[in-house]
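> call design_seq(struct)
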């Protein structure tokens, strides 16, 4: 079996560093604050765990929700405190290490269903067990861990990583894929190009990670807005983005079905300029809706465009009511337009009411 090829790109590496500047600064600041409080404030000689807990709790993960920060810190502090407690009973040695690790994993799995939580507890318990005992008391390292966790949470609230901007960027990526797929469909319909339709089908089948990333970024932004005084002003905008995400998620699912149907339809070799025109109109509306990530006025403008388009989705208007295979494309576009109207801010009932009767 061949090993997968590793592709390295200087541009991707630079972009990755640029995107990581905010978390790098945030984590560095948290580590400095945690160290300063434990070392200069409490006099701990080497507050290693105050630094490591703050770094690990924040991390570089896309999921920067306060809940995840708390869960990570809690797992580390639980492992530290548990190991320190067990050390006082069992002492050090090979069999004692095995017992401490077994107890740590067992209690962690009992307390929390997350496998990552259990691993965090186990790693921290071993870290405490193997390091030399600090001068100043049994639970000094637990205090350092608590300091690191609290600092990470405070930094998350007061110095957030601009998760709203990340959510907008993730939304842009999904819109780019959606618009690119519509452009390919239009080309395929005008040129009766099955290959282009196949490429569009392959593209829309890879859309789920983009949706998942946008959802995670939004969840993070909303969670931080609940505790950060600097993010509260964006709550309404973030709620609008959630509605936009839900509508686009459903619209993308319906687009996959539409692309599959058109891919099948093109195999008869006939040009369908009226369908290409409809796809172009939809693309124009989606382009305006993409600008609605940051503008309520753009969402309203996109809604007007979608209303005009949805009124056209009647097979009788194109004289294909008796051609089931061809009419099915128009019928499949109907739920997609309903989803796009919902994404623009219209209620589902009102969107369905705009559908022409057939």
């Amino acid at each position: 079996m061949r090993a997968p090829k590793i592709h390295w790109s200087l541009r991707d590496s630079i972009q990755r560093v640029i995107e990581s500047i905010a978390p790098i600064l945030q984590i560095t600041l948290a580590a400095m604050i945690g160290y300063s409080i434990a070392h200069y404030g409490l006099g701990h000689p080497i507050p290693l765990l105050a630094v490591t807990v703050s770094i690990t709790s924040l991390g570089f993960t896309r999921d920067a929700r306060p809940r995840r920060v708390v869960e990570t810190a809690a797992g580390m502090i639980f492992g530290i405190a548990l190991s320190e407690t067990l050390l006082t009973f069992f002492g050090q040695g090979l069999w004692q290490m095995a017992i401490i690790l077994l107890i740590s994993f067992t209690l962690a799995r009992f307390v929390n269903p997350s496998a990552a939580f259990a691993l965090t507890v186990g790693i921290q318990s071993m870290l405490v067990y193997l390091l030399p005992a600090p001068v100043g008391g049994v639970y000094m390292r637990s205090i350092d861990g608590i300091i690191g966790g609290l600092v990470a949470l405070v930094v998350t609230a007061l110095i957030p990583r601009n998760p709203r901007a990340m959510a907008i960027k993730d939304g842009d990526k999904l819109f780019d894929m959606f618009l690119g797929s519509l452009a390919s469909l239009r080309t395929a319909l005008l040129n009766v190009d099955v290959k282009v339709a196949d490429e569009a089908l392959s593209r829309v089948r890879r859309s789920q990670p983009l949706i998942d990333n946008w959802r995670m970024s939004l969840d993070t932004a909303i969670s931080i807005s609940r505790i950060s005084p600097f993010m509260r002003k964006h709550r309404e905008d973030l709620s609008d983005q959630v509605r936009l995400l839900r509508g686009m998620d459903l619209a993308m699912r319906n687009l996959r079905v539409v692309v599959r149907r058109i891919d099948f339809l093109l195999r008869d070799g006939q040009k369908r300029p009226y369908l290409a025109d409809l796809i172009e109109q939809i693309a124009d509306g989606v382009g305006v809706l993409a600008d609605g990530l940051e503008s309520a006025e753009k969402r309203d403008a996109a809604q007007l465009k979608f209303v005009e388009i949805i009124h056209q989705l009647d097979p009788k208007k194109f004289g294909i009511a008796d051609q089931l295979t061809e009419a099915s494309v128009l019928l499949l576009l109907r739920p997609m337009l309903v989803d796009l109207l919902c994404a623009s801010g219209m209620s589902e009932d009102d969107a369905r009411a705009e559908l022409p009767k057939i």
